Amino acid sequence: MTRDISLTVNGTEHELSVEPRALLISVLRDELDYTGPNVGCESSMCGACTVHLDGEAVKSCTVLAVQADGCDVTTVEGLATDGEFHPIQQGFQEEHGLQCGYCTPGMMMTATELLDRNPDPSEEEIREALEGNLCRCTGYQNIVRAVENAAEKMQQEPAVADGGGD
Amino acid sequence: MGAESESGSGVQSVDPDDVDAADILGSAIERREDPALLTGDAEYTDDIELPGMVHMTIKRSRHAHARIENIDTSEAEAMDGVIEVFTAADIEAPGNLPTGWLLDSLEQVDHPILAEDRVRYQGDALAVVVAEERYIAHDATDRIDVDYDRLGAVTEPSEALADDAPAVHDDASGNVAFDWDIGDAEKTDAAFDDADHVVDLDLENQLLIPNAMEPRAAVAEYNPSNDELAVHMTSQNPHLHRLLMSGVIDHPEHKLQVRAPDVGGGFGSKIHHYADEALVALAAKRHERPVKWTATRTETYLTDAQGRGHDTHAEMALSDDGDILGFRVDTAANLGAYLSTFAPAVPTYLYGTLLSGQYDIPAIYCSVTGAFTNVPPVDAYRGAGRPEASFVVERMIHRAAKEVGMDPAEFRRRNFVEEFPYQTQVAVEYDSGDYEKTLDRALDLLDYDELRERQEAARAEGKYVGVGLSAYIEACGLAPSELAGELGAQAGLWESGLVRFHPSGKVTAYCGTSGHGQGHDTTYAQIVANELGVDYEDVEVVEGDTDEIPQGMGTYGSRSAAVGGSALVKSSQKLVEKAKRIAAHQLEAAPEDIEFENGDFHVAGAPDRSMHIAEIATQAYLAHDMPDDMEPGLEATSFYDPDNFVFPFGLHAAVVEVDPDTGEIDIERYVAVDDVGNQINPKIVEGQIHGGVAQGIGQALYEGAEYDDNGQLVTGSMQDYTVPKAEHIPSMETDSTCTPSPVNPLGVKGVGEAGTIAAPQAVVNAVCDALDVDQIGMPMKAERVWRAANAATDGGEH
Amino acid sequence: MEFDGTFGLADVTTEEVWLALSDPVMIKNALPGCQFLVEVDNPDDVDFDALEEAAAEEEDPATLPEADPEEVAERGLAQGGHYAALVQVGVGSVKPRFETVVTIDRREFPEMDASGQGSASDSSFEMDSGMTLVETDDGVDVEWWTEADVFGRVAQMGQRVINPVANRVVGRFFKQVQKELSDVGDESSGLRDRISSYI
Q1: Rounded to a whole number, what is the distance in Å from the CA of B411 to chain A's nearest CA?
Q2: Total domain count for chain A?
Q3: Model confidence over C88-141: pLDDT tens digits?
Q4: Most CB atoms within 10 A, among B126, B675, B683, C195?
Q5: Which CATH number characterizes residue C189's domain?
Q6: Can you give the residue ranges of the 2Fe-2S ferredoxin-type domain (chain A) (predicted)?
Q7: Cβ distance B47 to A48 under 8 Å?
Q8: Chain A partners of B729 at a C-beta cutoff of 8 Å?
């Protein structure tokens, strides 16, 4: 028994049949080959699977694909536009905000949502916003700097801030 | 290279395009591996999709210790989409997982890849399901019915060694895996007889779960027409996995490829050879279809090799003047249910040999008993033995300074090793160091005297501020192989590096290490570009594939730069030597008259008579005009086997405020001054320190594998086992000094584990200092701190 | 892990509570997620699938106050008796269905001890339980205790998750018992007398 749904992922529309219990992360990864978002814990604790659903950061391991029917999904693959990195990607690169990179896609999706909401967050606000995204490599310090770096860039060039593809 | 930074504010990274070729080594350039990781282009094992691929899951024991009476797989096998369910009884020769480090007294026990009639930890593998879809495989696993006859379980090493403990293995009497000691017992006893003061502490170093963000996974594919088997897996050491797996599943090593794609962190947990990856390979052979297995997070909690797990009684003998006279340490070490790949080495040679710390201690004796218990195998976890040693030393130093009434910084200074090389009483010889320098730098950053005054003032106001110091030492790049062999290693500890010029003058460097977040592609390219005098962008780095790289030992123990990087240096130097002879031949000069600078060979005194090394590469492959006795081509392989370990060191300090009413701890400042020798890329060094410290703070405050009386893991999810979040970790102030190592050509020492080694005792010492108590156990959760704050200072475990 | 507690039931007699807590039908109705609870001959050989099918087809007999106290006493838990139950409990993100077998080890008014075990696909438990009824000024206190060993996925969630679940199940159970018993109190005193006579 499957259900027909439609998902717009990074601007591309996909029609597909899914099992009612299929999770959004499985459909993105296994059916549509968006392997940027990762599975880290299956319990919404680690945030490696974070994507944007209609502009809101969600943990795609706890969203059913059928719940996302008709929604716009943005994954890490949709952050860069025309080969140009999104400021958050530049921030992570410049500040060494990643090591193994496994948490990074989810981390950046949460961070871009924060910056949409709060263009100039304090360190405390950044740490608080990232409480649902775990990183085991960096100790978070350079992640915080990366988000600050991106905030600065986005404030200087507001046009770039729309590059998230939401 | 290796310039010392000026303050604790952090390293600024630079674009590699903005760095002069001559300055590439030592520059904090941005990492070249990042673009793929930032765009989702990275390929982790679970990202791999192959035509016809099927999925595998593993039925695991629910009980920590039980006899297996029956496994009923019929219902699972009858499900649509299930291809096969197999148990130990269904495979011809279920392999045993080997132990790669032997000790004289070691009790070796069988470790089958599928349990037959007995399980010894919750998570022991019982049956394998192969199915068309991942969902189906998981559903079928739930329908396997296992009849257990439950046995008593034991999870703590000191309990396992007690007389009435349940026997984990019938052959291992008293659950003793080994008895091991180091140092001079008589000399140490005599030091204690002469002591003015003796202090002692009971110290527990709790069990930890590594929690790499990427769960372990493997994809295997088998080609029956040529018997070639390829395993793509989450590995820190593909060559080692290939060697071990070829024995476990009885497949010829030369027809087995192990490849580590992008790997999402390891921290030791992806060194070891587990049953799971071998079962994936077996399943691929049985069905001649690609097979994928990816651990759920639950499985990683139950089966990833854990770390630490020491119960220690330590005593220190002191003089009235504040000299350390002797040190005696007795440890019961948890090895878990079976001997994992390097398990016997961790609580012995990687632990006892570091018990001199940064101090000139004239007599040391350490005895360790390894205990089998009903927890998952315990093996190397970031630091592996050295955090345990540093924890014991630095907790005791803190206690000892108080005993003799000295400031802990001055007590350390008084007892520091000053002359190098220094032969310790526990076998190892320190290569180089300058311990006062890191101490002084840290005290400066802390504004230590002012801090002590503030502490006193705060106390008068009813606030509990504490300062904790940790003067750590670690040993990296375990070597040489001959020594490792004498100590029980069943492997060499060299590293191989192949550097190959292409005819166009571009370079590919292959190294037997296998990075998983450390930035080797960047740092190795910096090393090779510097040695060859070619552009950084002209060097490609390849790691992690047994089909591409001649041989290798892998990445662990902070060895990659010191051993792998040095292998690439050696190979590069061989290339330069050969290129110099070609240059001499073509420039019609004697080789000894050729000078090499920034990639150019020129005749001494005639700088215009020159050839660039890239040009020589072209000539070497054209082979139209070579010296008489020379083969064409320009590539070289080295097997670099260092003469000694390298010994990074540093001083970490935590400043905390403790609320005695709630037991809450606030880390106000964390200062880290590290000396890792020369730094290839200071930004990467800084990142390693940050991450290591975060794991160390995690151990001090939050983390711990906890089991109930039946050996059931009760911290088996990310909700229950607190992996620190961004809010849990303070902003760190990092700085460094530079004392190059004389051991290797790069003068590097290793940095991957330093933070994890240093941090726990810095935080515990700070909390003890704040509350003026002798002892608090880890993790220092609020209730425990509250109890310590509100109990008499009796020196016992709270 | 150990759980215990006291639950006060108002306006009831010890005999009424005893009879109610001895009635498998009442227990089944009051226990959240309980599909059936029936007596079985051999605790080691229970066909839960067949029992579930049978339970789905049968209608539940009446409980007090509608039921005849004599019938209730007749079907009541017996010392040495074995009972099979299928209980589904939501624990965190999982909802294991426990196939449970309980044995009444001791039953002496007003005290009862039972032991049992249950197993689901990825979790199981073993337990010893007991209860004592104590008359109070305005009713009866049920003093109960359970020592349980939990295994598998549920155990991994630890007491943080299990304690609230246990409290919720116990709380709902006694609230339901209270509700049913308050109907008994509403009936004519004749029912109360008849109940006492069956103890």
Answers
A1: 31
A2: 2
A3: 887 766 788 999 999 999 999 999 999 999 998 888 999 999 999 999 998 999
A4: B675
A5: 3.30.530.20
A6: 3-79
A7: no
A8: 139-141
Residues A105 and A41 in one domain: no
B687 touches chain A (CB under 8 A): yes
Of B37, B695, B755, the CB nearest to A98: B37
pLDDT surpasses 60 at A165:
no
Residues A69 and A117 in one domain: no
At residue B787, the 3 state secondary structure works out as helix
Domain identity same for A71 and A132: no
Give yes or no: residues A118 and A153 share one domain. Answer: yes
List Cβ neighbours of B351 (8 Å cut-off, separation of 6 or more): B331, B333, B366, B368, B385, B386, B388, B389
Do C13 and C191 form a contact (C-beta atoms < 8 A)?
Answer: no
Which chains contact A through at least 3 pairs of Cβ atoms less than 8 Å apart?
Answer: B
Residue A51 shares a structural domain with residue A30: yes
Cβ proximity of B550 and B637 under 8 Å: yes
Q: Do B708 and C123 touch (CB under 8 A)?
A: no
Residues A62 and A98 in one domain: no
Domain that holds residue C60: 2-197
| Contact by Cβ (8 Å): A7, A39 | no
Q: Which amino acid is at B427?
A: A
Checking if the pLDDT of B754 tops 50, the result is yes
Cβ contact (<8 Å) for B213 and A94? no
Closest Cα in chain B to C162? B714
Record: contact A46-B212, CB cut-off 8 A:
no
Option in C121, C124, C156 nearest B714 (CB): C156
Q: Which of C121, C151, C160 sits opposite B63 (nearest CB)?
A: C151
Could you tell me if A63 and A9 lie in one domain?
Answer: yes
Q: Which domains does chain B have, with CATH numbers?
A: 46-151+211-303 (3.90.1170.50), 307-478+644-790 (3.30.365.10), 494-640 (3.30.365.10)
Nearest chain C residue to B139 by CA distance is: C121
Specify the higher pLDDT residue, B409 or A165.
B409
Chains in contact with B, counting 3 or more C-beta pairs less than 8 Å apart as contact: A, C
> What gap in Å lies between CA A118 and CA C85, rounded to an integer?
54
* Residues C25 and C174 sit within 8 Å (Cβ to Cβ): no
Residues A64 and A93 in one domain: no
Residue B763 corresponds to which tokens in the numbers above? Answer: 């935080």
Partner B contacted by A81 (CB < 8 A): no
- Do B2 and B677 touch, CB atoms closer than 8 A? yes
Among A50, A61, A102, A127, the strongest candidate for a mutation testing the B interface, having the largest count of B CBs within 10 A, is: A102
Q: What is the pLDDT of residue C55?
A: 87
Query: Quick check: A162 contacting B, CB < 8 Å?
Result: no
Residues present in chain A in total:
166
- Per CB-CB distance under 8 Å, the chain B contacts of A29 are 46-47
Distance CA(B506)–CA(B534), nearest Å, equals 8
Average pLDDT estimate for A89-111: 98
Spatial separation of the C-alpha atoms in residues B563 and B642, rounded to whole Å: 7
Do the chains contact at B691 and A99, CB–CB below 8 Å? yes
Q: Which of A78, A95, A115 is the endpoint of a domain?
A: A78
Task: Give the total number of structural domains in chain C.
Answer: 1
Beta-bridged to residue B597, according to DSSP, are: B600
CATH code of A48's domain: 3.10.20.30
| Range of the structural domain that residue A131 is part of | 87-164
